[in-house]
Write a structure and sequence with these properties.
The complex is a heteropentamer, with two copies of chain A (374 residues), one copy of chain B (285 residues), one copy of chain C (312 residues) and one copy of chain D (285 residues).
Chain A (H helix, E strand, L loop, with lengths): L2 E10 L2 E11 L4 E5 L6 H9 L6 E6 L2 E2 L5 H4 L1 E4 L11 H10 L9 H14 L15 H13 L5 E5 L7 H18 L2 E6 L2 H7 L2 E6 L2 E6 L1 H6 L4 H6 L3 E9 L2 E4 L2 E4 L10 E6 L3 E4 L6 E13 L2 E8 L8 E6 H6 L7 E6 L1 E6 L7 E4 L11
Parallel strand pairs in A: 3-8, 3-9, 6-7, 7-8
Antiparallel strand pairs in A: 1-2, 1-4, 4-5, 9-10, 11-12, 11-14, 12-13, 13-16, 14-20, 15-19, 16-17, 16-19, 17-18, 20-21
Helix pairs in contact in A: 3-4, 3-5, 4-5
Chain B lengths: L1 H8 L11 H28 L3 H8 L2 H34 L5 H7 L2 H4 L2 H12 L4 H8 L8 H26 L2 H9 L4 H30 L2 H7 L9 H10 L3 H34 L2
Chain C lengths: L2 E7 L4 H19 L3 E7 L2 H9 L6 E3 L3 H11 L6 H4 L1 H4 L2 E10 L19 E2 L7 H18 L4 H13 L1 E3 L4 H9 L6 E5 H11 L4 E4 L3 E6 L2 E3 L1 H7 L2 H9 L4 H9 L3 E2 L2 H6 L8 E3 L1 H5 L2 H9 L4 H6 L2
Parallel strand pairs in C: 1-2, 1-3, 5-6, 5-7, 9-12
Antiparallel strand pairs in C: 3-10, 4-7, 4-8, 4-9, 4-11
Helix pairs in contact in C: 2-3, 6-7
Classes of the chains: A alpha+beta (374), B mainly alpha (285), C alpha/beta (312), D mainly alpha (285).
Bound molecules: adenosine-5'-triphosphate (2 copies) and magnesium ion (2 copies).
Chain lengths: 374, 285, 312, 285, 374
């Protein structure tokens, strides 16, 4: 079932939680709503479900206008952030609830319900817990039961509010994968909320980045990463180093530091270069590309990478810089705390001063382009 | 774009998510109107029959004013005592395990169940100078029965459950972390209680004390048996209402009752609002 | 039963009417061949009057307060305007007076009203504001003062009454409360209440522990009865109601009443029980205060004599 | 070297403090609640067991007990339904006047019971504007059981709602929202999701309502008419017996009320305890 | 102040939350307690603070035995997971609390306290919020106030329970860095609980990995990553692919698949090879090193990497395999969903069948060794 939102807005009292926004979701798509706390993700999800009424706008499910339809009749599955399992019912009763409250006409008979619940519990691999109470389950188990309960009535649309928020990294990954395969198998349309970028990027067909009640960008994960269309999206999707430069002699200067004009054919100007931390190389001397002296503040080997924290030396930056090196790269030039090193960008995004437009992608050597296809 | 605009600008009619708004609010309002507000019209109509000056005269009668003083003082003392004792009871019931705890818990509601007159007679028996307590107190030179102190005793007896039952659930819900935070910062038990726990209990405690206070203002049955009812000394306002009733002076009775009622409602309303503010500061919503 | 009537009565008359009702039932059946059921309601008589005004379907009232019957006539036209004339003795089949109960041996040496205004005598009687019993007590004291100091010497009268009131230890709201206070709590030296009560109390709490003192002058306390005509007409019980009250004057009934320590008018019975009821000079409310309406207005009303005397 | 000692970490867990507080509570409770209770029984049994049973077996007493039960039986369900509806509307929806509604709900706590009775009398009595109409149509509400039920409902109506509101506020709406999304209708939602969550508070509210309904004296006495064997409730009957120098019988009946109250309260404690234990057993295996 | 735990154990009812464990923490160290939910991290932290009593064992702070010392007198700073700010006090009052409840003798005077609070608030960069109430702060702000409050009394030991658990990724990173610099500046000894491996690795001097009330391993981050001493630690520190092989003809076989003996000089046996996902290369054909046919299940570009999910083809593995490729590597061989590819390990860890010992590190070509120094 496709979903179509048109000019949806919502205020709480004085506070504009959602500015008018529109969004189309295709049938069978899995959409991730990503954004910082308070950006309106939950509000949007609840409006789609019908748990909250929009102040203006229209919602369509497929061809049907559901704007004024009651939650009950929208036939969506909803998984709450903290599960909202019925505490006084066993796991099996929780899952059966949606079936048992159906109209007498539609309701499957007892045996069918039992059969269906059994099947659902097996699907979420928790058949053996049918008679437990929610308080006796771990977080991951609760989450799966909440999913099974939401799926019991075979909704066309599944909505999930931070479905993996409270879980361990490991459990989280497992469940994430499981949800994806379930989605691909059954083929419902789903929308989930998260504030974990990795989760959004890994799980969704398209990601909706929100901030302050606006949609900042809607794109496929690779696209989003390759072409963030605003500083906000950029900032939000992982660590980034910002070089604030003035154009002088076809170089971007910041006090003693400078970066030369990139090889790509982009007319330069005053503005900011955004450089991702794994697109920085560290050298012992300035190169032709850049003269960015930095003092090493910390060197942290984090799993497959070495993260080097850097402090601008004789030039200004609002934040600490960070370079993520492979162990191999690091071994070639094992910098130490306190040393001065010179960074060289491979790729960057250029935000023109005074312009609100999407940044231009620039590069200095033949660094490979990120993949774009899924 | 512009074609959908007209449709989109119409404000959607959102149905309430949870069912029963009309039913529950409607029947609550109906019930409140029928059971609580409608009878109030009787009071209003009785007092409306009097002129303003007559109303004023009735409610400011010297003896009535004296009774306000006695009643308010006794109610203040009784409810403050109940605040302390109720807090202690709630604390002990929530924080400690000991044999007989459940019976103690059950006993708290006893004053609700006893007819107030029985309570009054029983208290008078105990506190009279020849009673179990009266004898002991007499040796200390304290007279309770047939003095204003007796009023205090009767009032606190009948209203103790209010404090316990409002404080108890809040105390149960109190998360241990704040307390532990206080202790790790080096605070003594007493500082933690006074500066961290007590402020969290304030809203409930104040509500409980206020309920206890208003209940005490209206208490009649239990009080008259131990009060002594001496003019200007131990006559309570409820007795003055009763006297007016004996004289078949319904308007005057209604007038005095309306004073108590308005005072109580104002107090409760003020406390509801204060509590909402306080809680808002605590919870931010 | 063929008919049912509701007798609304004052609070301590429970046993009295519990004894009278079978007597009357038998009488009524003999007289008319019909059975009658009698329901009883007991509470303070002012409260009862209030209830009747508001719709308590009483057929007859048997009160201890003339005013409480009068108000039924005045306010609600429930009782005939001339109810006092409907039956003998102001429609009061029995009467009593105010007497004293003192502790064993009469340690404070109480014999008459004058002794009650002595220093360190503690008095217990119900609050005149809330209780008819208390009003009788006050009026009796006033009658004594008028008798003692002369009708016009109001200063002396009020001086006496002021000390009298100041000697009160506890004002209970009703007669029973005062009794409890005096007997069970051991408060005060003198309990002032109806003579009928005083004897009841002695029977209840021990003949030996208390002594009854009947002062030389006291007040005539009438126990008025009346048919609530509006109700009984509506209920179709006017006849039986009327008879229920008239029969109280029969010799049999009067004997019964006397056994409850009430004074009665029937000469035969009077002679039989003369030794139990000492001679007293009985002043009427009319003599003391000009009648109940005047008493209520000039003495007991808000801010009048009683209030003035009690003011500190 | 190994020391199995437990640390005191919560405020007031030090044994000295703990036992002082428990001790103080027990003493105070004993003095303020238990001894009065014992004194009632003492006075009830003063003439021996036989007299006690006799006085309870008196037909008027039996009728009073029956009437009291009957009134409670009607009052409790009425207030149960009303309390649930009111709590539902106040905790599950936002609407203007919510605070006022919650204050209005407290009116019965602010009104002296005698005044409450008077209010009903002024309205439904023959001289009231509704009463006059009732009189014309020969409907007897006051001085009959309907009036008693009405004022009892008035006096006890806040208890259920007051128990439910804080709990339902704290539980939030999420469970119910989940149920609605799954397609539950209003009644299914209430019976299968809400009710199981609030049943303990509800039970407690019912027990308090019952205790208070059984023991109410002031308001009932005004509207009852005190007709023996007809409109005398147990508390009124106690009063009557007492006035009539039948102290023993009066206290026997009073002790009966206390016993009824204690039994219901202990019953509540018992099922709570069983539930708790069942729950513990569940969550540990 | 150094901390010394000896044979600390703790049971709750029947449940052994901590088996006897010992741990030494040096003065000025920053220790991260890492482990899955329920592994006893919080319990251990609370025992160190004195909020919980141990059933057995001894705790020393420096030279002092504090086993039987009351929390109050241990003089530690404790930051609670959900901050536990005093809701009814302003920010300034919260911070001042520890000072105000000091003994009259030690307590600074009013002006001094004010001065100190002001300084602390500036240190956490929230001087302007002194008069707000906690409910008016964002999560990150609350966290910083909680830290300031804990530091007000100048404790020698700072204990933190999941200090950044509830925060956005971005805020989290900022605070983490800030805490580290504060630690380095003031020099207290600190212990913090986390279940985020990245956090533990980045922030701590040494990481204590816990499971089921045991300490599994205590090591510096790089060491821990390079030489996990158990399957548990391995599993917990990031994704890993497991090849369960039988030794035949000096190859490890699993049905149709095999991996040849590694170049390093380790006698092989039946056992399991643990291969990290970024140490897998994907080829279109089997190589001399390995014949590991896998079907591509999903290709997710996640930031700087492309994550390829793989399903064993004609051999068995309990879990889905995962390969993390750089965009460059991926561009060289852009595999598609459904294709069969051949994986080749570069480095791996070998768990000998039936042995409880630490795994042996093995490799096949001259792949660079991970750095070991900080
Ligand atoms: N019922 C409400 N009344 C008032 N304000 C609200 C209400 N619900 C949400 N808001 C406000 O609307 C904004 C958006 O809230 P929402 O819950 O949608 O954020 P979110 O993106 O889900 O954040 P989080 O990641 O913290 O869950 C927030 O500022 C919140 O305070
Ligand atoms: N007061 C208690 N009573 C009973 N069991 C407890 C108590 N406190 C903790 N436990 C149990 O001890 C074990 C360890 O708990 P602990 O809180 O230390 O785990 P943790 O490692 O901090 O987990 P998490 O990451 O979920 O916070 C858990 O199984 C928990 O259920
Ligand atoms: Mg949210
Ligand atoms: Mg923990």
């Amino acid at each position: 079932m496709s979903i179509r939102l048109e000019n949806i807005s919502k205020t709480f009292g004085q506070f504009q939680a959602l500015s008018p926004l529109s969004l189309n979701i295709d049938e069978g798509e899995m959409i991730g709503l990503l954004g910082p706390s308070g950006s309106g993700k939950t509000t949007l999800l609840r409006i789609i479900a019908g748990l909250e009424g929009a102040d203006s706008g229209r919602i369509q499910f497929g061809e049907r206008d559901v704007t004024n339809l009651h939650v009950r009749d929208r036939h969506v599955g909803f998984v709450f952030q903290n599960y909202a399992l019925f505490r006084h019912m066993t796991v099996a009763d929780n899952v059966a609830f949606g079936l048992e409250v159906m109209d007498a006409k539609q309701r499957p008979n007892k045996a069918e319900i039992q059969q269906r619940v059994k099947h659902l519990l097996e699907m979420v691999q928790l058949g053996h817990l049918a008679n437990r109470y929610p308080s006796q389950l771990s977080g991951g188990q609760k989450q799966r039961i909440a999913l099974a309960r939401a799926l019991a009535t075979k909704p066309d649309v599944l909505l999930l509010d931070e479905p993996f928020g409270a879980l361990d990294a490991k459990v989280r990954k497992e469940l994430r994968r499981w949800l994806r395969s379930l989605h691909d198998e059954i083929g419902f349309t789903s929308v989930f909320v998260t504030h974990d970028q990795e989760e959004a990027l890994e799980l969704s067909d398209r990601v909706v980045v929100m901030s302050n009640g606006h949609i900042e960008q809607v794109d496929e994960p690779a696209q989003l990463y390759a072409q963030p269309n605003s500083r906000f999206v950029f900032d939000f999707l992982g660590n980034v180093n910002v070089f604030d430069g003035k154009l002088e002699q076809s170089r971007l200067n910041n006090e003693q530091a400078w970066i030369s004009a990139p090889s790509s054919d982009v007319p330069l100007n005053n503005g900011q270069l955004y450089i991702r931390s794994h697109e920085l190389a560290l050298h012992t001397d300035a190169t032709a590309v850049a003269n960015l002296p930095l003092r090493v503040v910390a060197v942290n080997p984090i799993g497959p990478e070495v993260r080097v924290e850097l402090e601008p030396h004789e030039w200004q930056s609002e934040q600490i810089w960070e370079a993520d090196l492979s162990h191999a790269d690091y071994a070639r030039n094992p910098v130490k705390r306190g040393e001065i090193v010179f960074a060289e960008p491979k790729n960057a995004y250029f935000f023109r001063e005074g312009s609100q437009q999407a940044p231009e992608q620039v590069s200095w050597d033949s660094a490979s382009q990120p993949v774009k296809a899924k | 774009m512009s074609t959908t605009l007209s449709a989109a600008s119409a404000k959607p009619r959102h149905k309430r998510v949870l069912p029963g708004f009309g039913l529950s609010l409607g029947s609550s309002l109906f019930f409140i109107s029928l059971i609580l507000l409608l009878p109030m019209t009787g009071l209003v109509m009785q007092t409306a029959n009097m002129g303003w000056s007559e109303y004023w005269y009735v409610i400011t009668d010297e003896r009535v004013v004296a009774s306000y003083k006695v009643t308010i003082w006794a109610a203040v003392i009784a409810s403050v005592f109940n605040g302390l004792f109720g807090l202690l009871l709630a604390w002990v019931l929530v924080r400690y395990e000991f044999p007989g705890k459940r019976i103690l818990d059950a006993l708290v509601d006893l004053p609700f169940a006893l007819p107030t007159a029985v309570a009054g007679i029983t208290l008078a028996t105990l506190y009279a100078e020849n009673g179990w307590y009266g004898q002991l107190l007499a040796e200390l030179g304290i007279k309770v029965a047939y003095t204003p102190l007796g009023i205090v005793v009767a009032m606190s007896f009948t209203s103790i459950p209010f404090v316990v039952r409002t404080v108890q659930p809040v105390l149960e819900e109190l998360a241990p972390e704040e307390e532990e935070a206080g202790i790790t910062l080096g605070a003594s038990d007493w500082s933690v209680f006074r500066r961290i726990i007590l402020p969290s209990l304030w809203p409930a405690l104040v509500t409980g004390v206020a309920l206890s206070f208003t209940r005490s203002l209206g208490e009649f049955g239990a009080v008259i048996f131990v009060a002594g009812n001496m003019p200007y000394i131990s006559e309570i306002t409820s007795l003055m209402i009763f006297v007016r009733l004996q004289e078949f002076d319904f308007p005057a009775a209604s007038a005095i009752a309306s004073v108590v009622l308005i005072a109580s409602l104002l107090l409760l309303f003020a406390i509801n609002i204060w509590q909402a503010r306080y809680l808002k500061r605590l919870h931010g919503r | 039963a063929d008919q049912t009537i509701l007798n609304t009565s004052y609070d301590i008359a429970r046993e009295l009417f519990a004894s009278y009702n079978p007597v009357f039932q038998k009488h009524w059946e003999e007289k008319t061949g019909q059975t009658v059921e009698i329901k009883q309601s007991h509470a303070g008589s002012s409260k009862q009057a209030r209830s009747i005004l508001q719709g308590l379907p009483a057929d007859v009232v048997t009160f201890n307060q003339v005013t409480d019957v009068q108000i039924l006539a005045d306010r609600g036209k429930l009782v005939a305007e001339d109810w006092k004339q409907k039956l003998p003795n102001n429609s009061s089949p029995y009467y009593s007076t105010t007497a004293f109960l003192v502790r064993k041996g009469n340690p404070k040496n109480i014999h008459d009203w004058g002794d009650l205004a002595k220093e360190d005598v503690g008095l217990v009687f119900p609050n005149p504001k809330t209780s008819g019993n208390g009003r009788y007590t006050y009026l009796a004291a006033l009658g004594y003062a008028q008798d003692q100091f002369g009708q016009d010497n109001t200063d002396a009268q009020e001086g006496f009454l002021k000390t009298f009131l100041a000697n009160v230890s506890v004002f209970d709201t009703g007669g029973r409360g005062a009794t409890t206070t005096f007997v069970e709590r051991g408060i005060g030296d003198v309990l002032i209440t109806f003579e009928s009560e005083v004897n009841n109390i002695r029977q209840q709490y021990g003949v030996d522990d208390y002594e009854v003192v009947v002062p030389k002058t006291s007040i005539l306390a009438e126990f008025p009865v009346a048919v609530v005509e509006r109700n009984s007409k509506k209920n179709g019980t006017l006849d039986v109601s009327t008879e229920y009250l008239s029969y109280l004057y029969s010799e049999e009934s009067q004997r019964l009443l006397a056994s409850f320590n009430y004074r009665v008018h029937n000469d035969v019975v009077k002679a039989e029980v003369a030794d139990r009821f000492p001679e007293v000079k009985l002043l009427t409310v009319e003599e003391i205060a000009g009648g109940w309406p005047q008493a209520m207005q000039n003495i007991f009303a808000n801010g009048k004599q009683l209030d003035q005397l009690q003011r500190r | 070297m190994a020391s199995g000692q437990r640390h005191q970490q919560r405020v007031g867990d030090r044994p000295a403090v703990k036992y002082t507080l428990i001790g103080l509570t027990l003493v105070l409770t004993a003095v303020l609640l238990v001894v009065p209770l014992i004194s009632i029984f003492q006075q009830a049994f003063v003439d021996g067991l036989a007299v006690y049973w006799d006085s309870l077996g008196d037909p008027d007493t039996l009728h009073a007990i029956g009437l009291t039960m009957f009134v409670a039986l009607l009052t409790v369900p009425i207030n149960l339904v009303f309390g649930v509806l009111l709590a539902w509307s106040v905790t599950r929806f936002e609407f203007p006047g919510r605070k006022l509604l919650m204050t209005l709900m407290d009116i019965p706590f602010a009104v002296s019971p005698v005044v409450a009775g008077l209010l009903y009398l002024l309205l439904y009595g023959n001289n009231g504007w509704i009463g006059a109409w009732l009189f014309e149509h020969d409907l007897q509400l006051m001085f009959a059981w309907p009036g008693i039920v009405m004022v009892t409902v008035f006096v006890t109506c806040p208890f259920v709602a007051r128990e439910l509101i804080p709990l339902m506020q704290q539980q939030g709406r999420e469970d119910e929202e989940a149920a609605v999304i799954l397609g539950a209708s209003g009644w299914q939602l209430f019976r299968r999701v809400t009710l199981p969550n609030i049943k303990w508070a509800l039970l407690y509210g019912v027990i308090l309502t019952n205790a208070r309904a059984v023991g109410e004296f002031g308001a009932v006495s005004v509207v009852s008419g005190n007709i023996r064997g007809e409109t005398n409730t147990l508390p009124l009957h106690i009063q009557l017996l007492y006035e009539d120098y039948q102290a023993t019988a009066a206290f026997a009946s009073a002790s009966l009320l206390a016993v009824i109250a204690l039994i219901t309260l202990i019953f509540k404690a018992f099922i709570e305890w069983r539930q708790e234990r069942a729950h513990k057993a569940e969550s540990t295996h």
